[in-house]
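Following up on my earlier thread - several people asked me to post the actual chain instead of describing it. Fair enough. Here it is, all 494 residues.
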Amino acid sequence: MQTKERLHGVDKAIAMWFYDACIPINASNSPYFQIAVDKIADIGHGYKAPNYHALRVNLLKDAKTDVSLLIDSFRSNWIESGCTIMSDGWRDIRQRHLINFLVYCEKGISFLKSVDASNITNNSVNLCNLFAEIVEMVGSNNVVQIVTDNAANYKRAGELLCEKYPSMTWSPCAAHCVNLIMKDVSELENVKSLITLASRVTVFIYNHKWPLHWLRQRPGWTEIIRPGGTRFGTSFIALKSLVDHKEDLQVMVISSEFKKMLKVGNVYECKSIVMKEEFWNNCLITVKVMTPLLRLLRMCDTDEKPSMGYVYDGVCRARKGIEALFKGKESSYKPYTDILDRHWENMLSTSIHRAAYCLNPTFQCDIDRTCNKENRVIHGVNDMAEKFFSPIEVLDISRDLGKFRDAQGTFGRTMAVVSRKVTQLAEWWRLFGGEFPLLQKLAIRVLSQTASSSGCERNWTVFERIHTKRRNRLEHQRLNDLVFVHYNLRLQNR
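Reply from S.P.:
Thanks for posting it. Predicted structure:
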């Protein structure tokens, strides 16, 4: 038992260390913080903390070994369900082109390494060789697909890699593809002008104290979302946010207090926009057009569960929703569907996307509907089956696929039907696909994958924060080890 004064002295010493070293306060939420404090308390008086050299060399090496053992525990899942290699490139503050590599499986994501590829990024052959090194690290028989940037050199490198490893497939990042669809939509003349008008209203409000203060006094007020510079989806989220605040904005501009703003520049333009019903109607239509795609983007951009089984259906539903919104009037919906179709055919309609849709029990009874033009989804299953199985086994899979589609055998049991939409896709196949082992194995390997490389993007800030601290003074290999340890610990403790 210690006095309050001594306890306060210890707390203050820890706080002073945080403040002096500019350590973020939320670092105290790390599960390893209290563990470290307990270890120090257990060892007793006289303990000396590790010095600078020990932290950057010996202890870092030991931590990497421990984390590597943790990652190795995932390998059994890589073998059983397959895995996805996620790759994405970025430039640091020194303009080096760095490529992050992660491995996705049902158990979680593992960070492998970050490579300085400044001298090879424009050469698809060298990129292919780099990817091949990562494939060998993971095990070529374990890799179902590699997800990379959508650039032409990455696409060509992915094709070369699939030629080298026929059991693999290459896919573009679905989140990036959806973002590109939104970019093209935002550049349509009518949408572009609408976003510009909405931006002027938002800028006016946040550039002047009185309107912002007045609005914040409104009951239930939430801040208007402002578009991000590189995420085109935020433009449409911002439109939705503005539509939600329509009543508050209109009440503000017609209030007697608003007269004090009449001498401010752009006030009449802002009032005119807010009071124009045509503006709000167009905003509402645009929001309704983009809502299915925003929903698809959120689904692709998460690591919480495998998303591959939902991409094809998500794009299909988005297209149908656009046609229904404009009541089948082709001249109205065609500018949007043309953009959607172009990206869909080029990027989001690969064999693995179609196979995942076909094998998803959620859509078991929908396989023969309008999305299945010319049996494309069935061909997708056959294409993926040919990568893993012999021709005779592929014939068995084709036969069993018909039983799955028609809900025969164990696929038609009451429990199987009831749990289609509530059970994780791969787990559903483990529970009810045992009567058809080859089709079960194919479905588990396909439906256990992710559709995007968003996890790589979330690693950029980690790498940048560690790298830009000059006092770390680590060469690239030790810096890579530090990111490896830091990022994998964060992944396991989410």
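The radius of gyration is 27 Å. That should answer part of your original question.
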